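Listing S7. Sequence submitted for prediction.
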Amino acid sequence: MNAERKTQTHFTRAIDTMNFIQFNLQRTSASCRYLVGFHHHRRKIATSSYVQRQFESRSLSSAPVTSPDTSVGSRSNKDITTDNKYSTPLITDEGIKIFQADPNTASSGLGLTWGSVLWPSGSCLAKYLYWKQQQQRQRANDDDDVGIIDNSTRILELGCGTGVVGLTCAKLGARHVTLSDSASELWPILRKSIEANDIDTTSINIYNLDWRDPSTFLNPSITNSHHQSNRYDLVVAADVLYAGMDGLFARTLASHLPSSDEIDGQKPPVAIIACPFRTDSPLFNFFGIVKRLGLELDRLEDGNGSAAGAAPGTNLCEAFYESSFVPLCGGGEGEEKIRWQHVAADPKFSPLNHDRVQIFRVRRISGRSADARAIRRVGRI
């Protein structure tokens, strides 16, 4: 009997050791994916045909740098670069004026490399929200009104970059929009875009939300320093998923999707995120993490089961015709993971989705005990 217990004890310790080794290997693997993804993204800036179309003859070479205005409350619209080629904003198909900055010039190039350029995913998500509101659909059920913005909608954009999604929401009449990004170098160009679009400054603000620091997360159960509620009806994000960043973004996203109990029984918020196709896509791991955090995912698809989306210049009614959100979770575990792998590694896109962007809806699963309050206490995913 004692020998049997000793054997069982040794077996348990062996399993614990193996789990510890596996955990550290996963951390090392995530770090490697992060570095690979970062260098891949920097190369993409120089070679992407989309950036070339957006900037046309604009050079991405270095330009003189001025000290950025990092005060959130400041009214200054000081530009990051003294080069006149960035003094004129781009105008989207929806009429939103977007200022950009040279991604190769900044006091911390990392933030501006990722955030100072208008990428296809942001444009695609803005188009979907614009189209959704223009449709004025009948709100017969929850699916019908997801993404429809009116004067009661409060919106949080995570990793806003140029702010194209949040600014579009503001122009569509949202009650309040919070543009969040930890790259303070972006704030001056965000202020310029807010002013250029004649958006009431009382209905929009810029917030320093750092995915690595849960203390900066917005707790929906309290009010902020301006006596405004931190509760949001819609959370949006575009082109924020990179290899090695899936866990950080998943935790941040889940932390801002509270359960109904946490917000006094009110209808919980919904998130809509847009992700471009990448060969080193982190989507498969991301799907698994958000499910463990008590969230469910759906993908926007056309009638043929392809990812619906719209590129600049396309007809939105044709691009999103008969589109609806289709669940990614459910069925047997094996069947579910096969679908995740297909969506992450080999997705099909609708004919007008030229930029190959996938749009996902994320919601908290009703009845799950793991709510956002508990997730905020987690130090690491």
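Caption to Listing S7: primary sequence and predicted structure tokens for the chain studied. Strands lie at 90-91, 97-98, 154-157, 176-180, 204-207, 234-238, 270-276, 295-301, 324-327, 357-364. The longest strand covers residues 357-364.
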